[in-house]
Amino acid sequence: MPEPTIGATIGPFTIIEAMPAGHGGMARVYIASVGEHAAVTGASNVESLPERVALKIARVGTPDSASSEQAFYFEALNNEVETLKRLRHPNIVRLFPIPRGLPRNPYAARATELDGMPWFCAMEYLSGGSLESRLKTVEALPLAEAMEIAYQVCLALDHIHLKGMAHLDVKPDNVLFRYPLNTGNVALRHLQPVLIDFGIANKMRKIGPPAGSIPFMAPERIRVMRGEVAPEHFGDQSKVDVYGLGVLLYRMLTGHLPYEGLPRDQLTSAILQTHPKTPREINAAISPKVDELVMATLEKDPGRRPRIEEVITRLDEAMVARPPAPPLIKPAARRNRRPLLTTLLAVALFLCSIVSLVGWGLFAGTALIAPTPTAAATLTSTFTPPPPTDTSTPTATQPPTPTPLAATSTPATTP
């Protein structure tokens, strides 16, 4: 298939450049921009696209190749599209519908502008590079970084398995980062590994095609590929992903693959028959728990490997870097530091009580010293002297002189 030129248009997309690691055996990946004409309004089930996307274009078979080759490329792309339509997870690449102005836009279409009209799809553009390129810059990753990447890849695989599927091709090339990393100082909170390439993903209870990278291929898939057992012999394909994750973690922790430097036939035989060195034999900084976990994922018998949810739990327990615990605050320290507002309220209440007591004392003293009008009248009536007796008049009983009334008394009425 001729390479699309820079600036070429495919549907609503314009090619910007080819991705460095985007030339696989079944498809090629390009970075493309989205023109203004790609925004379709008034149609249902259409998502707004980002400024850049990754276009995955299926290969076109050569003119002298059999039609089965062309069908294989199409099936791989179509299988990936159908799988990603069912998955939505932060650690899984996102698939976008292709704007066509239809009531329901397709997720795959033909590139009519290219020879052979290959099928293509639009995915999330991940600008942080691949794990493979990261591993080429260092012999082994720092323990905390390796554990965090493995943990997040496990979360993606767990989501896939819960949907009844298996990825079947876990390897560093298929782990990209959402954001660029400063390789000199990787902050764990910025790590967002994303699992890509679902071309050979399959249902968990159905053996996938014998494809993938041999160094990361589980022993049972090698036996199927070599024709030693029937594909139906192994029923749970989720354990294939566990093995691939184990090789991935082994590579990140040690800087080496479990089996490397061997030709193809010897490599497959070593995977089936021998045990690799433990990661701790290569890197003494690896804890015994992590060492045991990696070797458990590399078991020859898939039935002896842990399930992905167990791997998540064991990784979480053995994480090298954990966020610091919040400082403990002793209750006594809290009692010694009384808030300012509480102090002010206490002082205000104390002053109010003093003012109240003083006011009550003044009132009580005034009441005791100043007599009431009734009391004054009583005293006047009691101590008024009787009038003198006139001895010249005949003796008779005189009525007593009336006691003067208070100012508030009602005067007598004159007849």
One letter per element, helices H and strands E, the order comes to EEEEHEEEHHEEEEHHHHHHHHH
Total helix count? Answer: 12
Rg on CA atoms, Å: 46 Å
Mean pLDDT metric: 79
Fraction of residues in H or I helices: 25-40%
CATH architecture of the largest domain: Orthogonal Bundle
Q: Biggest sheet, in brief?
A: 7 strands, antiparallel
List low-pLDDT spans: 40-46, 366-384, 390-415
CATH top level class name of the largest domain: Mainly Alpha
Shape label? globular
Report what the structure shows:
The protein has 415 residues and is of the alpha+beta class. The chain has two domains: 9-124, 2-Layer Sandwich (Phosphorylase Kinase, domain 1); 131-317, Transferase(Phosphotransferase) domain 1 (Transferase(Phosphotransferase), domain 1). Helices cover 36% and strands 12% of the residues. Strands 1, 2, 3, 4, 5, 6 and 7 form a seven-stranded antiparallel sheet that branches. It has a two-stranded antiparallel sheet with strand order 8-11. Strands 9-10 form a two-stranded antiparallel ribbon. A hairpin with a 2-residue loop joins β1 and β2 (13-23). α3 (143-162) packs antiparallel against α5 (238-254), α3 (143-162) runs antiparallel to α9 (308-317) and α5 (238-254) packs across α8 (288-297). The longest helix is centred in the C-terminal third of the chain and has 30 residues, at 340-369. The protein starts with 8 loop residues before the first strand and ends in a 32-residue tail after the last helix.
